[in-house]
Specification:
Length: 465
């Protein structure tokens, strides 16, 4: 027995055969088009999101500059928004309702809802290349008419739509993971904030960590970021800030901006969810007619606010927010005017996001607080953005990372983290349901009702047959 155990065990497979089998496997792995096709399609889609995000940003900037040029070119042209803005709202709402249904609003709720749906047909009603095209066109139209909207939320729906199309074309089964990856890539390319894109996907889009999708998300963010960097270069969204708390009054900003921003953000999101319910009930008898009436009234109100504020509330609010981050104080009531204009633009039913306008509102809030208590305007604006943004979306990690990446203010890391957390806790106490997830329930409910109707009709046809 010992002799048998001591004998060398011979491998039944000769070395030459083993090498030839390994070589055949490697050739199959590297040479199979069916194996590489999903990867190539996915990589192409991620690069396309970066390119489209940059193009979308350029178009949005041109639209805003065109509106400013038209309305500031003469003595009486300031009256032009009173006509142009309501008409633009009505046209955008009409096209969104008739040609591009489910393109209304930010686009983030649609992407969240699509991840919760189980049928590809239901997802296609929320995310498609047709909707992506309409989203870009109508968001640019809204900015050309002076709407207080942003392009970053729409970029999420555009990115998710592209990735869902990639899933179909490449024969990939991970639809939910690809939607997550497309959304993260859209945020990363829109703000040039790759870390914020990843954190946004984990914290806001999925609300849980999904290890199976982390490779997809990371790869999509890297490739879309590379495409955006190749076209636009490396930059910080708001430039580079070096504001840091140096006195006790500066540390007081953390508590004031956290509580104040969180409460204001909770009020905005709570009113938006409540108004959405009331508007849908009111519009039910005559949907198209009443939607257009609402859009026209909201457009007129936005125009009046814009004219009264000297044009400060029109558009994304990027210039005003950047000025505050650079230390230039904004008018004391700017944050209230911008909040109201953003709220009206949101409930009007036109496509457009609230990311950039929310940052402008937060910067205005911080600027006002800083002016009143005599602290650093730049630091107050940065903390105001973090507190209000965390209050609106109830995603403190996303708020902290995105503000840090957009401003490059590493000297204020701890204050930004603290104010984001305080803003989140304050908002959570006042409004239990996060804004984007509350809005996504509308699309999920509509898809469920439509699916039940189709199944009921199919059952009736089968019984009749």
């Amino acid at each position: 027995m010992d002799i048998l155990l001591s004998l060398p065990v011979q491998n039944p497979m000769p070395p030459i055969y083993r090498k030839s089998k390994l070589l055949r496997r490697s050739r199959v792995f590297w040479g199979s088009f069916n194996l590489w096709r999903p990867r190539l399609v996915f990589w192409t889609g991620a690069l396309a999101i970066g390119v489209i995000s940059v193009g979308f940003a350029k178009l949005a900037d041109l639209a805003q500059h065109a509106f400013a040029g038209v309305t500031n070119s003469g003595e009486w042209t300031w009256l032009l928004p009173l006509v142009l803005t309501p008409l633009g709202f009505v046209l955008s709402a009409y096209l969104a309702t008739t040609l591009f249904p489910n393109a209304q609003g930010s686009g983030i709720p649609q992407a969240i809802a699509a991840r919760h749906l189980h049928h590809d047909d239901d997802r296609s009603k929320l995310l498609s290349l047709r909707l992506a095209f309409g989203k870009i066109v109508l968001t640019v139209l809204g900015l050309f008419c002076g709407a207080s909207i942003g392009r970053e939320g729409p970029t999420v729906q555009v990115g998710a739509s592209f990735m869902l199309a990639v899933a179909r074309f490449g024969g990939m089964a991970q639809a939910k993971g690809l939607i997550l990856a497309g959304s993260a890539a859209g945020i990363a390319a829109a703000f040039n904030t790759p870390l914020a894109g990843i954190v946004f996907a984990i914290e806001e889009m999925s609300r849980t960590y999904e290890s199976r999708a982390n490779g997809l998300v990371l790869t999509a963010v890297i490739l879309s970021g590379l495409a955006a960097l190749g076209l636009s270069g490396s930059y910080n969204y708001f430039g580079t800030a070096d504001a840091a708390p140096t006195a006790l009054v500066d540390w007081a900003l953390v508590l004031i901006c956290g509580v104040g921003g969180g409460a204001l953000g909770a009020a905005f999101s709570g009113l938006a969810l409540h108004a959405g319910i009331r508007i849908r009930r009111w519009a039910q008898p005559q949907p198209l007619k009443r939607v257009l009436m609402l859009a026209g009234c909201c457009g007129l109100a936005v125009a009046i606010i814009g004219v009264a504020s000297g044009g400060n509330t029109f558009g994304t609010g990027y210039e005003q927010a950047r000025g505050a981050v650079e230390g230039h104080a904004l008018p004391l009531l700017f944050f209230l005017e911008k909040l109201l204009a953003s709220f009206l633009s949101m409930i009007s039913g036109i496509p457009g996001g609230i990311f950039a306008p929310s940052l402008a509102v937060g910067a205005g809030l911080g600027s006002t607080v800083g002016t009143l208590i005599g602290s650093s305007i730049a630091l107050a604006a940065i903390l105001g953005m973090a507190g209000y943004f965390a209050g609106v979306v109830q995603a403190p990690m996303t708020a902290f990372v995105i503000i840090l990446e957009m401003t490059g203010d590493h000297q204020a890391v701890i204050p930004i983290m603290a104010v984001s957390m305080i803003g989140y806790v304050t908002s959570r106490l006042l409004s239990r349901e996060p804004l984007y997830h509350g809005l996504s329930r509308v699309f999920i409910a509509a898809a469920i009702r439509s699916r039940r109707t189709l199944e009921k009709d199919a059952a009736g046809d089968h019984a009749a047959g």
